[in-house]
């Protein structure tokens, strides 16, 4: 007779089951925040929201906020840098970092959205500083590209992140994917080539810095999986942002002073002539932080997989919205290339899931 597994349950306690398999950070193809622990789920501020809204409505509101913030920051960046004439992408990125640092401090220290974590060693500090440098490069390149490229084409290029992730994972960690995963990347590349050849507003420099931004985002994902591997060094995504944002602002400060001249005086002069610009900058910096906050909330109330699916759809939604607002010309071939790229990203995600199931 086979004896069933049993355990004793005491009052006010829960049984524990040991997991037989674990997934390391390096196995993740896309940089997604971890599902928060129970103490985060039981945060009193979220409990108050839950008392006013049903779980389904609350989740729908969070997903809507995620779309609003992710698409909103793209449109605001495009408007400021390209339409409005604010030609300082590095300084704008530095404002984003300062905003993220301030809002993160309030959210963690006062609102206690997540438990506060601390940097424990000089080695851990240097690792986070390295991630901040890659983060700076990626965000500055992304914002700079919006000066020269329409949002729709910018998002098409950004959708190729899995392609660069697979390349960096192989070059840095010698990690090989299955043949199915590599085949799924072919339409990702083919689609962007198709879209590039038929983009009416193609700009070579804008294209190159946008590719650099996409590659930087993929590199950060891979490097983060390598550097912050130990349990003692691993930080929650919101705590990681709290430490990365001020480091990134300090890294960007000499570059904005060197490359963008007396940007502070020029910004103040523009604000004196048009006070509405102050509202634009503050709103833009606030929405930049909301992107990170809603990433965390979507994962908390749904799952990392849902966030990945929403990310695949976001590029298409942002492209459509930007075309409707900015009226940039599009071609049938360009839309076809974008669709092929998105289809390749979806196939890649499915192939990654299947390969992980087979591996474990």
Automatic annotation (TrEMBL):
It holds the Pfam family TPT. Residues 1-12 have a biased composition (Polar residues). Residues 1-23 are annotated as: Disordered. The chain crosses the membrane at residues 45-68, 88-108, 128-146, 152-172, 179-195, 201-219, 240-258, 278-298, 305-326, 332-349. Its main location: membrane. It is found in: Membrane. This is Sugar phosphate transporter domain-containing protein.
């Amino acid at each position: 007779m086979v004896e069933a597994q049993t355990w004793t349950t005491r009052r006010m306690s829960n049984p524990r089951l040991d997991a037989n398999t674990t997934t390391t950070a390096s196995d993740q193809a896309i940089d997604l925040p971890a599902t928060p622990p129970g103490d985060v789920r039981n945060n009193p501020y979220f409990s108050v929201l839950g008392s006013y809204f049903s779980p389904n409505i609350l989740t729908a509101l969070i997903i809507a906020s995620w779309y609003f913030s992710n698409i909103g920051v793209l449109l605001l960046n495009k408007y400021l840098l390209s339409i409005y004439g604010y030609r300082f992408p590095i300084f704008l990125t530095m404002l984003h970092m300062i905003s993220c640092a301030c809002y993160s401090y309030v959210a963690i220290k006062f609102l206690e959205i997540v438990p506060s974590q601390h940097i424990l060693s000089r080695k851990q500090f240097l690792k986070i500083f390295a991630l901040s440098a890659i983060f700076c490069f990626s965000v500055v390149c992304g914002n700079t590209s919006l000066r020269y490229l329409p949002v729709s084409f910018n998002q098409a290029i950004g959708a190729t992140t899995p392609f660069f992730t697979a390349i960096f994972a192989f070059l840095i960690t010698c990690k090989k994917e299955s043949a199915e995963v590599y085949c799924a990347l072919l339409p990702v590349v083919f689609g962007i080539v198709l879209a590039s050849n038929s983009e009416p507003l193609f700009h070579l420099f804008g294209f190159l810095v946008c590719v650099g931004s996409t590659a930087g985002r993929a590199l950060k994902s891979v490097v983060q999986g390598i550097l912050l591997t130990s349990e003692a060094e691993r930080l929650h995504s919101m705590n990681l942002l709290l430490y990365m944002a001020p480091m990134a602002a300090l890294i960007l400060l000499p570059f904005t002073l060197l490359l963008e001249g007396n940007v502070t005086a020029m910004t103040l002069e523009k604000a004196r002539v048009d006070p509405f610009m102050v509202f634009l900058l503050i709103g833009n910096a606030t929405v930049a932080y909301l992107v990170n906050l809603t990433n965390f909330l979507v994962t908390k109330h749904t799952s990392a997989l849902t966030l990945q699916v929403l990310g695949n759809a976001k590029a298409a939604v942002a492209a459509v919205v930007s075309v409707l607002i900015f009226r940039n010309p599009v071609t049938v071939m360009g839309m076809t290339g974008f669709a092929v790229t998105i289809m390749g990203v979806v196939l890649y995600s499915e192939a990654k899931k299947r390969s992980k199931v087979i591996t474990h």
